[in-house]
Amino acid sequence: MTYDVAVVGAGIAGMTAAIYALRAGKSVLLIEKESVGGQITLSPKVENYPGFTEISGLDLADGVFNQALSLGAALEVDEVKSVTKEGGVFRLVCGYSEHEAKSVVIATGLRHRRLDAAAPFEGQGVSYCAVCDGAFYRGKTVAVVGGGNTAVSEAIYLADICEKVCLIHRRTGYRAEKAVMDRFLAKPNIERHENKTVEAVSGEAGNLVLTLKDTQDGSTSELAVSGLFVALGHIPANGVFAELCELDESGFVAADETCMTKTPGLFAAGDCRRKAVRQLTTAAADGAVAGLAAAKYVDGL
Known about the structure:
The chain has helices at 12-23, 57-70, 130-133, 149-159, 178-185, 280-299; strands at residues 2-8, 28-32, 74-77, 80-86, 89-94, 98-106, 110-112, 126-127, 141-145, 164-169, 190-194, 196-204, 207-214, 220-225, 227-230, 234-236, 266-268. The protein has 301 residues and is an alpha/beta fold. It folds into two domains: 2-111 and 234-299, FAD/NAD(P)-binding domain; 114-230, 3-Layer(bba) Sandwich (FAD/NAD(P)-binding domain), CATH 3.50.50.60. β5 (89-94) and β6 (98-106) form a beta hairpin. α1 packs parallel to α2 (57-70). The longest helix is centred in the last third of the chain and has 20 residues, at 280-299. It is elongated, with a radius of gyration of 21 Å. The relative contact order is 0.19.
């Protein structure tokens, strides 16, 4: 079967693109390699999405996904390995299947930026998701490394579970929103380790020793924790589309507010696109634009 639109990535942007294309009467295939909903499913509380004073990221994503399914979206849980365009049709080769589509929306989102020093302990005391693994450290001391919205939010979440949370940040200034910082500063059991980086991790699962380096004087110190949560931001995973669209120096798709790429019929939506603001609302907006643009492109074939 040749679908009208294939959407690679089932986060908020991808699912919204599917909804708009489906409502335009097009057949849509959603391809997701991990979990439907994307990064937002890991957020226990979303307070900045219009229409909801407060909602969990998982509930929000479930609602959007069920809406897409009710409109007729097909879902394939697989990873896209290559994409080519031949004779006006896109061919998507996945790990376990192959698909064809008249148009494609790239909505691959972002993946976690890894901490090299912690790599040997990933899954053995080092985690990239406080919501997923925080309960394992109830009543214990943990560390979070990072200084943005994600890191500060993870520290706040863990502070309600753990005895003490050590936030390690390479600077003194934080990149979190004011509302998030206000909650962060109100937590008495969060200890700030500023102007520090994690240079090495040793020990064993449940008893880690972090070697911290001072970014100002170069001195080192050790910090004993039960677990380490890495929240250093995210990077795009658009390499599979490199031959069909322009990527900037950071790997983001070079597409403007029209979500169009240099290849006719190929669009980019959400966090994977080069843009100034990456929020749920902008992901949904991109999805709407890309979904409608894909439908219009198919109509013109």
